[in-house]
Design brief:
alpha+beta; Alpha-Beta Plaits; two-stranded parallel sheet; 4 strands; about 20% strand
Length: about 100
Amino acid sequence: MLFGAPVALERKELAAVQFSLSLQKAYKSFNFIKKIQFGIATGRAYCGDFGSSIRKEYSLVGGVVNLSARLMEFSTESGIFLDERTTQRLGNEKFWS
């Protein structure tokens, strides 16, 4: 998931967590999905269309992209892992699933 590009978004960390929580609730209704995991990291990434005019794809590259993928790998089934920067930006927000 990507929040804040191509158009800037205020409180993108909050939007990412809220979206992840809503997906956690919804995925159980799809019996072909065995587990769902999330890694949320905040930072700069290069994003845009990569490739030629024949075959191009909107993609992201950068350390924060790699970090979020690794956080996702370490999260438990149906878990959400946040990096420190995301946690700091969320402040005292409370979440219930």
